[in-house]
Amino acid sequence: MLAEPLSAAPSNPLIRPDGRSVEWVVASGRVAYVDAVAEMEGRVAAIAAGDAAERVWLIEHPPLYTAGVSARDEDLLVPDRFPVHRTGRGGQFTYHGPGQRVAYVMLDLNQRGRDVRGFVRGLEDWIVGALAEFGVEAGVRDGRVGVWVERKGPGWSREDKIAAIGVKVRKWVSFHGISLNVEPELDHFGGIVPCGIAEHGVTSLVDLGVPVTMDEADAALKASFRRVFGPVE
What we know:
Layout: E1 23-30, H1 33-48, E2 55-60, E3 64-67, E4 84-86, E5 93-96, E6 100-106, H2 116-132, E7 139-141, E8 144-153, E9 156-170, E10 173-181, E11 201-202, H3 214-229
Parallel strand pairs: 1-2, 3-4, 9-11
Antiparallel strand pairs: 2-6, 3-5, 6-10, 7-8, 8-9, 9-10
Helix pairs in contact: 2-3
């Protein structure tokens, strides 16, 4: 069952009533995970104190695995393959690497309804809307975190994950965020059980036969973000 996009009308609580824009920043090069976390920590504290604007930070990481607060040790199948970072975000194990767009979302939920579940639903709708820009039908599934696509062939069908979500909230300011598979090395997911779900696969836009560049993916993410969360600068 596909998620229905949230309305961009003023009644949408995820859009700030004051209309203030979110900073939209695209990093150049690959960003080390520890550096990204340190940057997020500082920005979140500044947003909570009223000293900085909200930000969406789009980056690529070198190959690595991250473990959320629910990660199980047995889901790390190849411990020595890539660096493993334990993190305070929600969720289990995930992979980050080149060809994957990671978007760290630092929003002040004091201004956006103070509803963590509604915020996560907004993140899902954001990704679904971005994928729709390329004609990719995607949605969410009960009991499975992230965004999924259905794949079919003669006599078979399966659901693969195309985007992951893992967030943390401190003083009602969000951080961590989403990762969208544009053209990562899908074999790199084989060192973990992604998000603790072994019975489904992982895919990407390029794997689906949609030859999207990272710049094109960023443009789609920006357009969809505006519809769900409001203006960016």
